[in-house]
Design goal:
Helix content: 25-40%
Strand order of the largest sheet: 6-5-4-7-8-11-10
Radius of gyration: 21 Å
CATH topology of the largest domain: Rossmann fold
CATH architecture of the largest domain: 3-Layer(aba) Sandwich
Number of domains: 3
Length: 405
């Protein structure tokens, strides 16, 4: 890596998770010889403090017609995006003939209630299958990547946007110069650019290093987002903590001088400074904690296998790929992973080639233990799988440390 993708400053690497496959690259056996690998390492810019991947995976390999993640896949996220939509409808979209654009709309979880309210909208989504799912809900979708040229074409056809929004998407876009040029081209005067993404502070607090994978190029903190916004003529005017995905922040940006920043911006900036969020010592402690999790999890799984215990995986989100491959876990320790996403079932997990099977195989013969890879939905999953607990089954979690519940 030659320098920071935001400001060009020097990037200091602080964690290396080794050779990794595409996080959502679930594959069939006849695709094994074509599997893509790259080095998954993370660094921090010593100038603007943006935490970022050292190596970028080409975007066409990450987002394609077979992209398997569905935003509407859990009750928690459906409820969250319904609340987001109602918030926008009551505030930024309450004026005459508003226009709302979502970058990376996926299957339309957020745009659906906005469309139902009769608000002009457009989703920009390059992954064909999920884009078609959104269209099936009556949502307007442009099948493309969001960048300056795309934004200019949208403005020419639809006019300026009151809100440009992204959820768990903006941190995926390495080319931030083109992103902000597009936002500037499309956003009306006084409009807002809002995005909610995994928070670096929460990742460090929970040692949730599995949130590091090819799709997450940046790991935002309030200080680094503020610096990024200012570099491209924008201003960070509000921040809100969210509980989804283990802890996120919703950032609200406007063009410089167009809105007054809320007190919360300075409050979170002060909190980040006090805890040393961007200090190299803090990041090095995080890297050390990751190694302890790898040792403890592999030791536990190896010991359970020696005792004749049956252990399987539960949930195959993209984050599971990082953990499994960093820890060197294979079918010898986890014979299969069950997941409710049809497009993953019958395929092999990236890198490890552990079979992915439907949830029916989990309940047909309950294991003794299950590693809960979808830990951010732990409450929802554990409540749903009460039969597993009733049969004596126990959950293995590894955030913030390896433990059994």
């Amino acid at each position: 890596m030659s320098g920071c993708r935001v400001c060009g400053g020097e990037v200091r690497e602080f964690v290396d998770l080794g050779r990794q496959p595409l996080a959502n690259g679930f594959l069939t056996r006849d695709e094994l010889d074509r599997e893509f690998f790259y080095r998954l390492a993370v660094g921090i810019c010593l100038s603007c403090t943006m935490v970022q991947l050292v190596e970028e995976v080409p975007r066409h390999l990450r987002y394609h017609d077979a992209y398997p993640y569905h935003t509407s896949g859990t009750a928690q996220m459906r409820s969250h995006f319904e609340e987001d939509a109602q918030l926008f409808l009551a505030t930024e979209l309450a004026g005459p003939d508003p226009f709302f654009v979502e970058i990376g709309c996926n299957d339309g979880a957020l745009l659906s209630p906005i469309a139902d309210a009769g608000v002009r909208h457009l989703g920009v989504e390059p992954s064909g299958t999920v884009a078609d799912m959104a269209r099936g809900k009556g949502i307007r979708v442009l099948g493309d990547f969001f960048e300056e040229g795309t934004a200019e074409a949208i403005r020419a056809s639809d006019g300026p946007a009151d809100v440009i929004f992204g959820a768990n998407t903006i941190c995926h876009l390495a080319a931030v110069e083109s992103l902000f040029a597009g936002v500037d081209a499309l956003l009306r005067p006084g409009g807002v650019f809002v995005f909610e993404e995994p928070y670096l502070g929460a990742i460090l607090d929970h040692t949730s290093f599995d949130q590091i994978y090819d799709e997450h190029f940046y790991f935002f903190a309030v200080r680094s987002v503020q610096a990024m916004a200012e570099r491209f003529g924008f201003e960070l005017v509000n921040v809100e903590h969210l509980t989804v995905h283990g802890g996120e922040i919703r950032y609200t940006l406007a063009r410089s001088g167009q809105r007054r920043p809320t007190p919360e911006v300075d409050e979170v900036l002060a909190a980040e400074k006090a805890r040393g969020l961007a200090d190299l010592e803090t990041l090095d402690r995080f890297a050390s904690a990751i190694q302890h999790i790898r040792y403890d999890l592999v030791e536990l799984l190896t010991r359970l296998r020696a005792q004749g215990r049956r252990v399987v995986g539960y949930g195959a989100p993209g984050k599971s790929t990082t953990l499994i491959n960093y820890c060197g876990i294979g079918p010898d320790l986890l014979p299969f992973i069950c997941d409710s996403t049809p497009s993953k079932q019958g395929r092999l997990a990236p890198g490890s080639h552990i079979p992915v099977r439907p949830p029916a195989e989990f309940s047909a013969r309950y294991p003794d233990y299950a590693v809960l890879f979808a830990w951010n939905y732990a409450d929802e999953i554990i409540a749903k799988e009460d039969g597993f607990r009733a049969a004596g089954g126990q959950w293995i979690l590894y955030v913030p440390e390896v433990h059994i519940v």
